[in-house]
Structures are given as C-alpha cells and as structure tokens.
Amino acid sequence: MAEDLRNREWHRTDAVHVLREAANADKHESAPSHNLRAIRDALRELSAAAQPLAAILPDIAMPTPERLRQRRIVCAIYEHFHTGETEYSFLAAGPRDTWMTVRQIDTFQVKNRHSWVIEKELARFADWEANPPGLAELRASLLESDNELFRIAEFTASYTEVHELMAPYQHDMPILGGLHREDYTHNLVASAVAAFIGGANEAIVVGRHDKRTQQLSARVATLLTQVSTSAGRLRLDRCDQTVFQAALPSALVADAELGLLVQRNAVVLVLA
Fold this sequence. Notes:
single chain, 272 residues, five-stranded antiparallel sheet, four-stranded mixed sheet, globular
C-alpha cells in the first residue's frame, strides 16, 4: 500500500513505515526501544498530508469495508539460479504438513535482482519469522522435494496484501510451459479480478499479456459487472474447493469453470 501511494506521488510513505515499524516492535519485543522524535515527526507529516489522499484515493472517503480475512501464511522461497529467477510460493500449511499435503495459495516468480526488495517488504507483515523452529519438519520436507529451496518464513496477512506486493514483480521470462504462474488458470483469474477492482489492468495483470490473458480478463469483467454496486466495494480472497462449494449456493454471481464467485459481503473468492 505504501509503495502504491508513492507511485501515485504521495510523498509521505517513509512516515508510514516509521509508524508501522514502531507498532511491530511493540507487538514482538518485550522491551522495545523507540525513537520518539521520529514517531512524533511522522505523525505530524501524516497529519499535514492527509487531505490530499482524498484526491489520490477517492474511495478513502467511503465507509471502511469489513476487514479481509487475515491468515497465517507460509512462504517458501526458491532460488532458481539457472533461470535467473526467485520463486515465492505462498502456502496454507502447519507443522505437521509435508510437501505432499500443503495447499498452495498462490505463487509468484520474479527476477533475482528484485528479491532483496521483496523480502524487505514481506518482513513488514505482522508476525514475520524466517525459518521458524516450529516448522522445521515442514522445511525439511520441502527441501527434500526441491533442493532449490532457500528458506521458508511465516507471517500474518490477507491474500490481497500479498497479491498487491508481489504482482508488480511477476516476470514474463520465457520458461517451459507449465512452469509459469499464469499457466495456472486460477492464478490468472485472481490477477484479472485484482485488475478489475483496482481499475489498472496493465499494473496488476502481470506476466504474459497474450490472447488467453485478454479473454480471461474480459470474461471476469463481464461477470463482475453483474454485481450491483449496492453490494459494496469488491474485495479479493482465495479459497479451497470445500469453501468454494459451500459458498456457491448463496453467491451473487459465479462461474464454476473459472473458479470464481462473489459472496453477499462483496468478497470475490477465487479457487487456489
């Protein structure tokens, strides 16, 4: 979010980061040490800069939507040096899971040179922990399955937050068929939904801009425009088959083939 505001020429994102880091320190450290002057200055900057946000983000004046589902997410990071890419696989997994039982929420592939920036931003998510001891067996299993595993981490966030961070970095490098993020239809549908909600197709639909991408994006847009504005602002999340099937009967609109439905609370669920 902060980087999106910076891209829209709102130049107080450093102040946002100061407050976020202070809040994380309070949450995770037993005796946090704060730079009170920096916090005071950040608050003053944000107070003075709040008014221009209405022009940059018109929806800021709308009622705050219901909070999107926050979940514990495991991120498995793979370094593929032979292709010059780093892969981030976001998983629903617990201590007893193995590489055969984890469920992938989404995956993103970026050029190696972007990985240090991405991991700095990922570390800002709540409860971030790299190679958590409680997931040592899971890490060993993932490494057994693929020896290019670099490390894993665990954190708390919504899927939308992960997508907003990762999508702009997704590469369009020519790799073997079936290995690109967008070779998996549901991932591409999720990005098309994000593009529709954000109104910035080129910025959010990432990777390959081919005929298939255009057709899926058009199909998603056709479905979502059927949702009345009275339902509220659309928000994106991913789910498994069990959740999808349970939500299907009461959905406002749905396309089972795309793995896409809109709930009555305006949350757009896309199969993971």
